Amino acid sequence: MNVDVVVAGAGPTGLMLAGELALAGVRVLVLERREASQRDSRALSLHPRSVELMDLRGIAEGFLARGRPVPGWHFAGLPTGLNFAGLDSPHPYSLFLAQSHTEELLAERAAELGVRPRRGHAVTGLRQDADGVAVEVRGPDGDYLVRAGFVVGCDGGRSVVRQAGGIGFPGSDSTFSAMLADFAVVGPEAVRRAGEHGVLAAPLGDGVTRFVLPDAERMRVPVSEPVSEAEFLAALRRATGSTLGVAEPRWLSRFGNATRLADRYRNGRVLVAGDAAHIHFPAAGQGLNVGLQDAMNLGWKLAAEVKGWAPAGLLDSYHVERHPVGQQVVDNTMAQTLLLELMLMPEYRRPVGALRAMLDELLGIEEVNVRLAGRVSALDTRYGAAADPLVGARMPDVVVGAGRRVYELVRDGRFVLLDFAGDGEVAGWADRVRGVRVRADGPVRSEGPVPGEHPVPGGHPALAGVRAVLVRPDGHVAWVSREETGGGRAESGAGWEGALREWAGAPAAVVG
């Protein structure tokens, strides 16, 4: 069997990536070692940028129908939460949604695009050469080989693809663990009382409630040791003085603070994303979200490489752009975990309590809260360090012309050249770029927290003086042209034609 790309793993990252590749017309095969989809849900939320990604592809409605918006989140379990509601986004909230539902919806999306995971088929090894990758697979009927142009490991922290592909995974093993339990029966005041004692309790729907509990007496237990119901109830009683009326456990698990980051996200024709690229303590619920964002960044770049129009260095920019994000997440989760871990140790409880109180006070300062909220939500993600503040950042979801949102314009996975000046032309790139001319006297209206209509080039503060914007398929800005105060023009690099060549490759006639 020959395919363009093999994706190992049918979790959220693998399914998101498969959908992105299929959208671009890439032949993709998803291999998943599990015979059935995951019923239990370790992750419980989609943060604002992840909801934006679903909106960018026109599938947010299904997620919103099943999830519950939450306007704020937490950082290290501090009393003062992160305020997502004031962030510049059409989705300024975290969507409380079990991972099983996220996987189901992404699987439906992939199936609509012609991709269905091959379950019960585990990648066991690979060999790459100059022309492709031979992927070794163990299926229900025996071992076989798949020949592919590329293979992407979305197969978790113990990724076979990463190891066989020669990608290092430096970091540290677990030194601290906590317990997780889903109960079908809870007392009427259980959630409130748990919260009063620092125990995370969250209703999951269908009568099931999730409890997350670090326990001083069990914090050094290896993550490989199963959690018993008696162990969890004893720890719950120590923390709250009661078992809170819980019964009928549906899932008991232990998780730790092992922290590792791939030393490179690409080695030739082998790439990694999601937990295969980074693992950490699930502080502030960032893991699943970072994986989805990895997939969105990689999908269109890998498709461009497969289709033959990728400019030099485009696929390598996946590592250049996403590795620093992984490092940032690893760093902030280590800091949060330390604040939680030391509070469980009697000798540190008092000084760490003072530190937590000071940090909680700082979170009450708007600028500090916005900074950390932007980081955890991933809304502050910016690729590169261009002089123009818009380049590399998320494109604001403004309405241009006759009621068309920018997010709606990128749903087919192409670039979008928003032309406010009327001097751009994308004919040679029409298979990769949508050209949208915006009337100079038409409205540009923000869908985020910057309300009202304004004449071009106002609309959104970041668009002041803009003549043209090239928006990438993942919703980030590749290039901007602005009017200078003196009447000249300032561009982030070459003009619009140079920008198209730099990002979308040679025009079709040249590619042909």
UniProtKB/TrEMBL annotation:
Highest rank taxon of the organism: Bacteria
InterPro entries: FAD-bd, FAD/NAD-bd_sf, RIFMO-like
Domain FAD-binding: 3-333
Keyword Transcription regulation assigned: no
Residue ranges the record marks as coiled coil: none
SUPFAM superfamilies: FAD/NAD(P)-binding domain
UniProt keyword terms in alphabetical order: FAD, Flavoprotein
Cofactor names: FAD
Gene Ontology terms, MF aspect: FAD binding; oxidoreductase activity, acting on paired donors, with incorporation or reduction of molecular oxygen, NAD(P)H as one donor, and incorporation of one atom of oxygen
Identification of the protein by name: 2-polyprenyl-6-methoxyphenol hydroxylase-like FAD-dependent oxidoreductase
The organism of origin for this protein: Crossiella cryophila
